[in-house]
Amino acid sequence: MNSYSLDYIDDLYVQYVRDPSSVSETWRQYFEQFLVGAGARITPPASTASSGDSPSNGSSAGARTVVSPAFANGQPGSSADVSDRTGSTGDQNVDQALWLARIQDRVDQLVREYRVRGHLVATLDPLGLFEHTCPELSPRSHGLSDQDLARPFDSSILENVSGSTLDIILKKLQSTYCRSIGAQFMHIDNRNIRDWLQRRMETTENRLDLSHEVQRRIYTRLADATIFEEFVRRKFVGAKTFSLEGAESLIPLIDLALEKAGQHQVKEVVMAMAHRGRLNVMANILKKRAMNIFWSFDDPTPELSRGGGDVRYHLGYSSDWKTASGDHLHISLCFNPSHLEFVNTVALGRTRCKQDNREDRSRQDVMTILIHGDAAFAGEGIVQETLNLSELKGYRTGGTLHVVVNNQVGFTTEPDEGRSTTYATDVAKMLQIPIFHVNGEDPEAVAQVVSLAMDFRKEFHRDVVIDLYAYRRWGHNEGDEPRFTQPQMYAEIDRRPGVRQQYLNRLLKLGKITEEEADEISRDRTEKLESEFEASKNESFTPDTQTLAANWKEYFGGPEPSDEVDTTMPVERLSELLDTLTRLPEGFSPHKKLKRPMQQRREMASGDRPLDWAAAEAAAFASLLDAGHPIRLTGQDCERGTFSHRHAVLHDMRDGSEYCPLKNLREGQARLELFNSPLSEAGVLGFEYGYSLDCPSGLCLWEAQFGDFWNAAQVIVDQFIASAEDKWNRLSGLVMLLPHGFEGQGPEHCSARVERFLAMAAEDNIQICQPTTPAQYFHLLRRQVIRKWRKPLIALTPKSLLRHPEVTSPLKVVAEGSFRKILPDRKVPLEGAKRLLLCTGKVYYDLLQERTEKEIEGVPIMRLEQLYPLSPEEIFAAFDGLAEGTEIRWVQEEPENMGAWPYLKLKIGDELNKRFQFTKATRAESASPSTGSMAAHKLEQIDLIQAAFEGVTN
Fold first, then answer.
1. 703 - beta bridge partners?
2. Residue 62 pLDDT > 60
3. Confidence at residue 620, expressed as pLDDT on a 0 to 100 scale
4. How many Å apart are CA 693 and CA 351, to the nearest integer?
5. Where does the pLDDT of residue 827 fall: very low under 50, low under 70, confident under 90, or very high at 90 and above?
6. Are 101 and 67 in contact (CB under 8 A)?
7. For residue 140, is it left (φ>0), alpha (ψ between -120 and 50) or beta?
8. What is the average per-residue pLDDT within 447-461?
9. Residue among 538, 557, 866, 850 nearest 722 (CA)
10. In this predicted model, which residue has the larger pLDDT, 316 or 206?
């Protein structure tokens, strides 16, 4: 019921007065109660009703009604006489009561408008350049006159207020919702959450009563932030620092958030942020010694960073934090490259893994703080992917604190050029969470929203957003001239004292601090920075380097080790595990089409049937879980498998219940997390990469629906997976499962773009493998975990080969074999070969079929199962026995300009041609990976296979 219902109620009431029997029994009872409550001096007609429920929770007549003293005297006190009002009953007392209900409803609607739209007129912009108007907040827009300001109304709709005049109600609303804090929360559907927020804000008028100690702490943090920036700018003139000046309130904001986290018993905090203010955060929050930061400006040892490292404002750091109350937290600031927001899900993945490592199922021991920029938050789609993960069971972390440092400009782009929304944070309204906008030049308002936001996260385990309105004092970077494009903004900035000075003036006025105390704080900070600066100039100074975390002590990166790791296991145990995977709970009824595969897997377990691809994968997973290694696998439809081969999670056909055999191997087995992901690549791949950073002993896998889908996550691969060790000395064992193979499904479903990975391959940074047998796949997965060398693994997995009759491996070979980088031809020797066909992946089976059917002799087929790292020496060793001058023909399904051919030609082509003839059989050079025509694909495939054997005679 709302104000639009009033005309209807008026009509009903007039009918009731004229003839009580003309309205329903419920309405008769309601009007009787209303008239008594309103104190109308009439005797309502006797009702025939003996029972019934009156309307409830309405905002119309009868809801929270109070009769004013003016009405008691028969004086409406308004410019219009009651008898002139529409719908008059002819009885002045009744008309007065009805009018009072209507005007009370208008007051209630006005209260609601302030809750919904008060943020639009809040004083958020420190520069005062942008002002919003909201006519809905005017009493007149609700039919309330100036005379009504002094009239008492029922104000129980507001928290902690009752029996107030309209003027007092308005002041309460303006104080709560229209000062330095603008709250968006009425979009939240859950009334309990809305009521909680209203109660917290309206009982305090959205303002904390801060102690002297807290006020001094806030000022000290502002001083830390300001003095650091001024010192760096003075000592390193013209250097890029991406200064925090203009948004210094970020430092007390984080400080207070960490203090609150300690009170909430949080043990670890994972942070991520872009480059603006990062040096300040590292110095003043993570307590990185300033001498290390100063040393990086001078960069005195360039030879140590030749070809590696990263710029200082992309680096991460970790440290311990002790709160004022004595609580201890560990803080990790994630490394972040130039794509500002892509680190978001990396940080969330790290948080999730840390929670899992602690067996923190409530997801409250570890939390994430993400610090965003306004333009990036509105502009980069990865933000939506990040928000979407927050309430999904496979990615939930118990609530993230999002802080948007709102510079009100993106480099040189104005807000009206960079977003189509009122606020940069409007995308966050997709979640049922509050968004707090706050003026960054009101540090005490900042303290209020931090306290409120952190308590909200603790109470509801959900994300929360703080939009910190600020500005950039020096433009995008210190060498940039912002006045070229924002002259008015920077004219205002040039006139403004910093937030530290403004807050100091306030504290001095209140007598909360003295000039001498403030000077002492400044002097102490400056002296410390000077001391650190001098120390950084000492020739004997060497900067601190953060080593791998304690749980990484056993693991290493660098070049691939030459010694092979033992990935075998007893046949009997492997058989037991495979058989266990076929045993279902009593009464569980999977789909009838799964009964035959389950029976076949029992035969595989007994050794009566060779293992197919899915069985080998399941066996690898089971063996690792059995040995204590946790596994996490996510991806679109990965539980069943895109090609309906995995069926790791079974569904009962009668009640839809689920059963995962891999989770039921034995008591005490390792943790398995297996989740279908949302339709996201960048966000989910970033999450799994982040998870792998804190799970060195486990197997972390992300599976693309089709191999080329990772192109939507190119940034994660380029800036994290492929380069993290080189830039930041961070290791990862993440596995990317990328289905690959040309089977006529069109350009976007054939190629995992191996050429892109090979172009990024250097310094043994990643592994690129395309196993062609179940046994190879089994040992590849086990090798990834068992050996201590940690590198991301790009595994090109099959599609049509999943059920190919030739793609099987005997149980004994699976159990007792090992992964081999190069698979020679076991049937055709190299000695006396007419031509050697060299290939990788699915095309091997096409070549094998052609050779068999045509009975071609003297042409061995060799497979490269690991494309990288693979040294020329290893390749040449595989050619032992091949006569010099013999043709080695590389065969690939990809076009000539794609696949592995360009890489191999560059890396080994010249050396090969010195001893052999190195040629190729490929599809023609193309801008697209493949044709979209199945018929054309078949013709091309025939041509390709014939080209491989062309010129060979028996």
1. 635, 737
2. no
3. 98
4. 10
5. very high
6. no
7. alpha
8. 98
9. 557
10. 206
Q: Which two tokens stand for residue 251?
A: 């430092």
| Cα–Cα distance, 386 to 372 (Å, whole number) | 12
Residue-averaged pLDDT of the chain: 90
Average pLDDT, integer, range 879-904: 97
Least Cα distance to 414 among 474, 482, 479 occurs for 482
Q: Is the pLDDT of residue 67 over 80?
A: no
369: which strand partners?
Answer: 271, 401
Backbone angles phi, psi at 825, to 5 degrees: -85, 120
pLDDT above 50 for 73: no
How far is the C-alpha of 863 from the C-alpha of 825, rounded, in Å? 8
Measured CA distances, 55 to 1, 27, 52, 769 (Å): 10, 8, 10, 69
Sheet holding 861-864, edge to edge: 822-823, 861-864, 835-839, 887-895, 917-923
- CB-neighbour burial class of residue 678 (10 A; exposed 0-12, middle 13-18, buried 19+): middle
- Name the pLDDT band for 88 (thresholds 50, 70, 90): low
Q: Give the number of other CB atoms < 10 A from CB of residue 852.
A: 10
CA distances from 773 to 31, 739, 805, 948 (A): 81, 14, 11, 22
Contact between residue 744 and residue 795 where contact means Cβ atoms under 8 Å apart: no
Question: pLDDT by residue (tens digit) across 587-637?
Answer: 999 999 999 999 999 999 999 999 999 999 999 999 999 999 999 999 999
What is the rounded distance in angstroms from the CA atom of residue 717 to the CA atom of residue 792? 10
According to the model, what pLDDT value does residue 86 have? Answer: 45
The tens digit of pLDDT for each residue in 767-824 reads 999 999 999 999 999 999 999 999 999 999 999 999 999 999 999 999 999 999 999 9
How many angstroms separate the CA atoms of 247 and 446, rounded? 12
Helix (H, G, I), strand (E, B) or coil at 65: coil
Q: Which of 709, 557, 564, 587 is nearest to 636 (CA)?
A: 709
Q: Which residues pair with 786 in a beta bridge?
A: none
The whole-number average pLDDT for the span 372-376 is: 95
Nearest to 439 by CA among 417, 471, 402, 487: 471
Let me know if 411 is exposed, middle or buried by CB neighbors in 10 A (0-12, 13-18, 19+): middle
Q: At 111, is the pLDDT very low, low, confident or very high (cuts 50, 70, 90)?
A: very high
Question: 764 pLDDT exceeds 80?
Answer: yes
Residue 850 and residue 945: Cα distance in Å, rounded?
7
**Would you state the structure tokens that stand for residue 456, as one six-digit string?**
């909200």
| Residue 840 neighbours by CB under 8 Å, 6+ apart | 770, 772, 863, 864, 865, 867, 892, 900
Structure tokens at 351: 């948080």
Least confident of 158-172, 292-306, 736-750: 292-306
Question: Has residue 745 got a pLDDT over 60?
Answer: yes
Question: What is the rounded (10 degree) CA torsion for 157, 161, 165, 170?
Answer: -70
Tell me the two tokens of residue 303: 């030879």
Q: Is the pLDDT of residue 559 over 80?
A: yes
Helix orientation angle between 6-18 and 25-38, rounded to the nearest 10 degrees: 90
Residue type, 117: R
Mean pLDDT value of segment 488-493: 92
Residue 223: name the closest of 523, 530, 470 by CA.
523
DSSP states along 541-553: ---------GGGT
Nearest CA-CA partner of 645 in 624, 676, 614 = 614
Q: Which two tokens stand for residue 777?
A: 């796949």
Q: How many residues does the chain have?
A: 954
> Partners of 333 in the beta sheet?
271, 317
Alpha-carbon distance of 322 to 787, in angstroms, equals 37
C-alpha torsion angle, residues 353, 356, 361, 367 (rounded to 10):
-30
First-to-last C-alpha distance (Å) of the chain: 90
- How far is Cα 338 from Cα 750, in angstroms, rounded to an integer? 31
Q: Determine which helix (DSSP H) or strand (DSSP E) holds 366, and give its type and residue range.
A: strand 366-373
